[in-house]
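Incident review: delayed structure delivery

Summary: a single-chain prediction request sat in the queue longer than the usual turnaround. Root cause was a stuck worker, restarted by the on-call engineer. No data loss occurred. The affected request and its eventual output are reproduced below so the record is complete for anyone auditing the incident later.

Affected input:
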Amino acid sequence: HVGRIAPQKNHLRLIAVFAELLKRRPQARLLVVGRGDENSSRRLQQRVEELGITRHVTLCGERGDVPRLLMAADVLIFPSRWEGLPGVVQEAAAAGTPVVASDLPGVREIAERLDDIRYLPLAASDRQWAEAVEAAVAKGPSDRTREGALRRFAASPFAIERVAEMNCRLWVGLSEAMPQKTPFVVTRFIGSTRVTHRQTA
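Output delivered after worker restart:
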């Protein structure tokens, strides 16, 4: 999992799902990447200890090598409560790493355009989440090569070049639709005298 340790990211649910997964795959390991405030981090550590899974979970804080970690992972588990268009799900797809995530609009949008992204509701049980994770790991990525995953991502609307191109088209279209000369009012003071006049841009 990659994400700051905060209620939005739902780390306590992540730990519960992983604990269920351990019943099926005792050799599993969970790497939690991201930093959080002291209270959130302490609660997460306490929950790991309460479940007796400390040796299976590594809380490694903020890292500068997230792409490398994603490429080494078998799956990204992402049970967020809410998101916009989650960047780490896109990063995992670019790395060729399968994703099991919450059923959120942004996740569905990515899943419609990129492979190996599964989503299910947060209302699903820990067992159902663990089964989805296990299925994703067993299937593996659709494209066994990282180069293939990168090619698919580069052809998607999420690639930075395509995002920049779409934004440029949007702004050019807006500028062409605007009147060439837009009148506006300028007010200034000369000493204590107020002067107002109209001019065009």
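Verification: The helical segments are 11-24, 38-50, 66-72, 87-95, 105-111, 126-139, 146-154, 160-177.
Action items: add queue-age alerting; document worker restart procedure.
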